[in-house]
Amino acid sequence: KYDGPEYNTLRTLKDKHVVPCIQQYYKTPLLINEGKMQWLFDHDGRRYLDMFGGIVTVSVGHCHPKVCEAARKQMEKLWHTTNIYMHPNLYTYAEKLTSKLPGDLKVVYFLNSGSEANDLALLLARAYTQNYDIISFRNCYHGMSPYVMGVTALSTWRFNFPVMHGFHHTMNPDVYKGLWGGKLCRDSPSQTTRDCNCLGGKCQASDNYYNQLEEIFKYSLPRGKVAGIIAESIQGVGGTVQFPKGFLKKAFHLVRTNGGLCISDEVQTGFGRTGEHFWGFEMHDVIPDIVTLAKGIGNGFPLSAVITTPKIAETLGHALHFNTYGGNPVATAVGMSVLEVIEEEKLQQNCKDVGTYLINELEKLRDEFEWVGDVRGKGLMIGVELVADKETRDPFPAKYFVDLMEDCKNMGLLLGRGGLNGNVIRIKPPMCITKEDAGFTVSVLRRALLNHEERRI
Ligand code: PMP
């Protein structure tokens, strides 16, 4: 039962005391009161299927009982920072977490947010290589601190002041909307990302994007040297954009041969969400030098991590580096229980089964509606790009998108929004959803698309 202040009182408090960049979805923003697994409940007790996992943070389910119990037990015992004393949680969790990573990725630094983790990853790459320049992909999102804002290459998330220099944004190998690939592809013109050969093997478009990366080395980098490259394994905020098969492997190789480290941002793609693999980078057949984790790692609890090799980690011994809350006993207890739940409830397999089913069902919508341009993603990391017209692929107008989201909410379905033009539906639910939930999602979306059709007539 909701026992907080009245809705309108809160709206007034929000307008008066909260910074304006905290924007909410929906014309009448939801006042949420409770969460249970894949469900959210508002102040009136209305239930919603949360297909956005509270912005991808909720991995094993809202208020999962095992995770709650782990947090509660630890809270009653000790919350204090563990960075100036020893505490068992940090070390046992570090061992368990790194056992999930391949190769030499065995040393971890715990922090509290994705931006912090990426900040540290960049610092590590620069300190280790003694090079300065960092490459990222256009349309990427790596966080909001002044440091990583320079890496993030979505203009909608950039403020009008100089960010730190030394960041280079290479062309994003987007085979749906990019300059090469998709219907403009010389080899196999395709209508959607999934039909595109680029995702299945070699293609000219992929090579063209790779050439663009080479050009950065040729034209922009002093002595052609680089500190590192950072990549999401599937771009999240940018609208679930996937790399062509083999692209990232070649890109990582190029960076390494020019002295740089390879950083995989697994903030959204980690912990089994993509189904086939536990980590998103595995689908690209690469082993990065540094991996950053946040969001799903703590099922929404503030926790993030940077994982690297012992050799690279040594660099951090050159000076003092401290994070007050990173790896505190409560966060690490939560992290440990999240890993246990993923294993016990076979959530990676669930992502694969339910995700594949959902993608196949969403493709039917793509075939039914003129506005559903592309359905893409892997496991439970899905994007549905809405377009004004399938031929031009121009973005679906924002005002219609807002109406569609509103319709879905009114029918009990919460979805995410992404892409530079805000025209991609992002589906990244708690990993415990069922096939019935997937079916419900598709039927609500179908109804909302029909409503849009009727409104236009
Ligand atoms: N990396 C990626 C891929 C993200 O999606 C985000 C958050 N959307 C971040 C980093 C930044 O995480 P945080 O908001 O916790 O700083």
Automatic annotation (TrEMBL):
**SUPFAM superfamilies referenced in this protein's UniProt entry, alphabetically:** PLP-dependent transferases
Which reaction is recorded as catalysed by this protein?
2-oxohexanoate + N(omega),N(omega)-dimethyl-L-arginine = L-2-aminohexanoate + 5-(3,3-dimethylguanidino)-2-oxopentanoate; oxaloacetate + L-alanine = L-aspartate + pyruvate; 3-oxopropanoate + L-alanine = beta-alanine + pyruvate; N(omega)-methyl-L-arginine + glyoxylate = 5-(3-methylguanidino)-2-oxopentanoate + glycine
The alphabetical list of record keywords is:
Aminotransferase, Mitochondrion, Pyridoxal phosphate, Transferase, Transit peptide
Localization: Mitochondrion
User: Which Gene3D superfamilies would you find in this protein's record?
Assistant: Aspartate Aminotransferase, domain 1, Type I PLP-dependent aspartate aminotransferase-like (Major domain)
Q: Which domain of life is it from?
A: Eukaryota
On whether Cell membrane is a keyword of this UniProt record, the answer is: no
The protein's matches in InterPro entries, at most eight in alphabetical order, are given as:
Aminotrans_3 (IPR005814), Aminotrans_3_PPA_site (IPR049704), PyrdxlP-dep_Trfase (IPR015424), PyrdxlP-dep_Trfase_major (IPR015421), PyrdxlP-dep_Trfase_small (IPR015422)
Kindly state the subunit structure of this protein.
Answer: Homotetramer.
Report the protein name in the record: Alanine--glyoxylate aminotransferase 2, mitochondrial
Native organism taxonomy = Eukaryota, Metazoa, Ecdysozoa, Arthropoda, Hexapoda
